Structures are given as C-alpha cells and as structure tokens.
Amino acid sequence: MKTVKSITYCYEQGEDRVQKVIGVYAPDKILDGLDEIRKTMCGNGRELTKDTKDCCNYYLEFKSDKNGIEYFYTGDFILNEINL
Question: Which residues contact 3 (CB under 8 A, 6 or more apart)?
Fold first, then answer.
C-alpha cells in the first residue's frame, strides 16, 4: 500500500451537501494543490475565511454571496494494488 494526500471539495447543491475528491498528490506536493485552490477561488470572487493546519492536514474555507460557504480539506488517501 502507498499513502498519498487527497484534497476534498465540499459544497451545497440545493439541500444536499456534496463532497468530491478533486486531487490526489504526493505528500510533498499537497501545498502546490492548495496554493492553486487559493488562487482560483479568490480569483473567482470568493473570500478566504479560514486557512488552518491540524497536524498534517489542511482546511480552507471560502465564502461568497452567490455560493455561500465552500470548503476544502486534505487527508490521507491509500492506494491499494489490485491483483487480477
């Protein structure tokens, strides 16, 4: 098994809360993915309201009038080999 880091995007669609893994990175490249999210979201008119790190995982929260609160978090993602 190999562990990599994933970034999950969470937002509301109607009355449903949606969570999507939007990226899988080598542990040393996760900051590159988070920097790209910060640039893109702020460039699209969202305000960065929270940017925290807990141990080895990150949490970014954005707010906009149109989309409300959206957030991203990182976590470990385990890749398993499939033997066919």
Answer: 27, 76, 77, 78, 79
Task: Quickly tell me which residue has 């990226």 as its tokens.
Answer: 23
Residue 36 contacts residue 51 (beta carbons within 8 Å):
no
Beta-carbon contacts of residue 51 (< 8 Å; ≥ 6 apart)? 38, 58, 59, 60, 61
The residue written with tokens 């969570």 in the block is 19
Task: Report the alpha-carbon distance of residue 9 to residue 61 in Å, rounded.
Answer: 10
Task: Specify the pTM.
Answer: 0.87
| HSE-up of residue 26 (Cα within 13 Å, Cβ side) | 2
Task: Please give the Cα distance from 84 to 36 (Å, whole number).
Answer: 37
What is the predicted pLDDT for the residue at 2? 73
Cβ atoms 31, 51 nearer than 8 A: no
Place of tokens 């999210």: 37
